[in-house]
Design brief:
alpha+beta, 37% helix
Length: 76
C-alpha cells in the first residue's frame, strides 16, 4: 500500500466545464474523468482561484479510480 499523495490539477473553462485535468486516462474526456473522481473522492477536492482546483489523493486511490473508470467504460 502506497500512501504517497498525488495531486490532480484541474483547470476550468470560463463556462465551468473542465478544460484540463491531470492523470486522465486516454479514452476519457477531461469532464468525464473529473466527474468520476469527484463522485469517488469528493473530500479530496480543493477549489483554487483563477478557475483551478486540485484533488489530493493517495497513489493507491488513483489506481483504484483508473481501474474503476476502465471497468465502467467496458460495461457501457
Amino acid at each position: 500500500m502506497s500512501s504517497d499523495i498525488v495531486m490532480l490539477h484541474v483547470r476550468f473553462a470560463p463556462d465551468g466545464s473542465v478544460a484540463e485535468i491531470s492523470e486522465r486516462p486516454a479514452p476519457n474526456s477531461a469532464q468525464a474523468w473529473f466527474d468520476w473522481v469527484s463522485l469517488s473522492a469528493p473530500d479530496a477536492y480543493q477549489g483554487l482561484s483563477g478557475g483551478r482546483g486540485v484533488f489530493r489523493i493517495t497513489r493507491d486511490k488513483l489506481e483504484e479510480l483508473r481501474a474503476g473508470i476502465a471497468a465502467n467504460n467496458a460495461a457501457a
